[in-house]
């Protein structure tokens, strides 16, 4: 059943009365109308959704440990692979990113490959050693299976928070993978040192020690080796393409090979970034713009003389924890975001989880002329808000030209998006659980957990 929806929302209540959001203009009543249809339900944590060359939707299930194909016409599902060794125990780990070779199903020898990113336990016995890896599979179109596994790169760092795991293949035929900061210096991991600014050393790279890949975006040859044209950082060439990231959950390749990313901020300052080789995106020294607004880096792991683990829980920063303003940090490689969401003034007090964040999910780029005025737009998903933000890009792809436009509002957590080549049909995968808030910031139950929703353009 299709339902015609018109995207009309009231003003979003974002902030407490004590503070005003900066750069807050968001178009909430665009003229476009869409029909909505539930394609399928009952998915075990759909995480990656992409339009395949077989005109099917390819989906990874984070909790289900499966790669499946979904028929967009009737929602029927076919299991291509069950990856039993995936370790899944928290809200962010499991079977994550999927990337197809661009020549898949074109009959070209050596191109029938699909790559997946997943977390696993690397320790024998009862101990748990969380790691992330990328594995290549060969797709058999006749049997509709993924087989002949080959490990591309293994032993990458991961943890129980801020895992990352988004995977794409660039126009340069390199793999790009996001790895979060492991939740360090935050919540239950606040006493863990944050390594998003730490770069690998020569000895680490030569020894296959990837521990300093936390808070990074990697660029990897299809065989797992280090590309010879990767940036040299502190004189060392590694898989690291960019650094200073917090929780990067969106990654997409632009029409000219650009790499765009979306990542979570610390209660405020969610980011959409243009990722460039060797650039530093600031975290944990900077959240969003380097503007000294609201965010101050409190390094809990460096607490002295009182050790971090002796400190009381709560948001108040004790005197023993060193702090640093954004403007007191400077790095010549720093790259400001294309756009932030929920950047706030000093004195802002968050009203609970998700009250001042859009919590980015996946991101995609729209390049069709099928919907007037949309060509060359980023589509950034919100987990907490249950909307998609359309960000119109400049012709050079290096800036956002107009305020973001809210699309497809539902009471769901949008994890990832796939675009039909017809330019008028969009597929959104939803989380099976997790927090979601309405336009006033109040919590609400999920409407379509663990589902794929279709939105089809119906004109203006």
Strand and helix layout:
Elements (H helix, E strand, L loop, with lengths): L2 E4 L14 E2 L10 E8 L5 E6 L5 E5 L4 E5 L6 E6 L12 E6 L12 E9 L8 E11 L4 E13 L6 E6 L5 E5 L22 H5 L9 E5 L11 E2 L2 E2 L2 E4 L3 E7 L5 E6 L5 E6 L20 E3 L24 E3 L13 E3 L1 E2 L15 E7 L10 E6 L5 E5 L12 E3 L6 E6 L5 E6 L21 E6 L3
Antiparallel strand pairs: 1-3, 2-24, 3-31, 4-5, 5-6, 6-7, 8-9, 9-10, 10-11, 12-13, 13-14, 14-17, 15-16, 18-19, 19-20, 20-23, 21-22, 25-26, 26-27, 27-28, 29-30, 30-31
Explain this structure to me?
It is a single chain. The protein has 460 residues and is mainly β. The longest helix has 5 residues. The chain is globular and about 65 Å long. It is 1% helix and 37% strand. About 4% of the residues have low confidence. The protein has a single domain, classed as TolB, C-terminal domain (Neuraminidase, 6 Propeller), CATH 2.120.10. The strands form 9 sheets. The chain has a 5-stranded antiparallel beta sheet, with no helix packed on it. Strands 4-5-6-7 form a 4-stranded antiparallel beta sheet, with no helix packed on it. Strands 8-9-10-11 form a 4-stranded antiparallel beta sheet, with no helix packed on it. A hairpin with a 5-residue loop joins strand 26 and strand 27. The protein is built from 1 helix and 31 strands.
